Amino acid sequence: MSDTIEVVSSARRFAILAGVLALLAAASMLGSAWGSTAAIGQPAYPDVVEEVPSHLQIQNDHQREWLRFSTTHINLGPGNLQIRGGGQIAPCTIDGIAYDQCTVATQEILDSAGNVVLTHPAGVAFFHPEHNHWHQSAVAAFKITTGDPASPGGCSQAACGPEIATGVKITFCFVDVKFTGVTGKEKKAMPRSYFECNGDFQGLSVGWGDEYHQSTPLQELEVTGLPVGDYYLTHQADPENHWLEGPTATSPGELNNFTWLKFHLSRDGSNPKITVLAHSPCTGAQCGHSGNP
């Protein structure tokens, strides 16, 4: 009788122990789920704006004239612009140009703690042979027009007049190059996060800009034989809406991707000359250093 009771008691203790362990495991799993839910916050969207174009200059090259200019992408939003490559490499064609190495790009929207809370298709990442590093597709579109972009409707409603010159949708690598703050305290609060132009991982941190100097290939539009007069250089960022910059299409970050600069072209001497006359409204870092070199 005693042996039987002992066996039954051992079995019962084992069953109780197993039950407790199962409950602890379930609680642990539930706690982990609760913990991950609590850790994930609201999406912190980037807000990539364009600095007013600067360093305008005419370059003569083999009987052709090119307007060259510098541009800078600046992230003024509460969250980083973060783009990750797909890993699978294959040839592709973008705007009629063939590239040997391409991969799918995905935007990762983070919360304030750096967790990925949303993803969004972001076009294609590809290896750019001239720049010798990886680019993101359709980052910007440059045009020269005659109509005033500040007129009612703006260029989005075809109010910019005839297009004098237009280029392919420009591709760029995203990397933190220029801090837009002033103090060391600001820089400490907005650290640099993206350092290399690789195919796997690129981005633009809050408070940082990525500058492309006018000497960089494709920072140009052809103006051969363009008559003396006043013109507008326009810069549209993200022309194919590859990045989410707010929860809806009417979020402020989705509506401020356009900038322009008015210039006068003169031909008094042997070389054409550019004089900056005006530019789109801007504040702070977005105003840049528009003008001639």
Structure overview:
The chain is an alpha+beta fold and 293 residues long. The protein has two domains: 1-39; 48-78 and 139-287, no CATH class. Helices cover 15% and strands 41% of the residues. It has two helices and 17 strands. It has helices at 2-39, 184-189, and strands at residues 48-50, 54-61, 64-75, 81-85, 90-94, 97-110, 116-128, 133-145, 163-166, 170-172, 178-179, 201-204, 208-212, 220-222, 229-237, 258-266, 273-279. The strands form two sheets. Strands 4, 5, 6, 7, 8, 9, 10, 12, 15, 16 and 17 form an eleven-stranded antiparallel β-sheet that branches. Strands 1, 2, 3, 11, 13 and 14 form a six-stranded antiparallel β-sheet that branches. Strand 5 and strand 6 (97-110) form a beta hairpin. The protein is globular and about 60 Å long. 33% of the residues are buried. Residues 1-38 have low confidence and may be disordered.
Summary, kept brief:
The chain has two helices and 17 strands. The strands form two sheets. Strands 4, 5, 6, 7, 8, 9, 10, 12, 15, 16 and 17 form an eleven-stranded antiparallel β-sheet that branches.
Question: What descriptive keywords fit this protein?
Answer:
2 helices, about 40% strand, eleven-stranded antiparallel beta sheet, single chain, disordered N terminus, about 290 residues
Helix content: 10-25%
The largest sheet is: 11 strands, antiparallel
- Count the E strands: 17
Q: Which series of helices and strands comes N to C?
A: HEEEEEEEEEEEHEEEEEE
Secondary structure elements and pairings:
Elements: H1 2-39, E1 48-50, E2 54-61, E3 64-75, E4 81-85, E5 90-94, E6 97-110, E7 116-128, E8 133-145, E9 163-166, E10 170-172, E11 178-179, H2 184-189, E12 201-204, E13 208-212, E14 220-222, E15 229-237, E16 258-266, E17 273-279
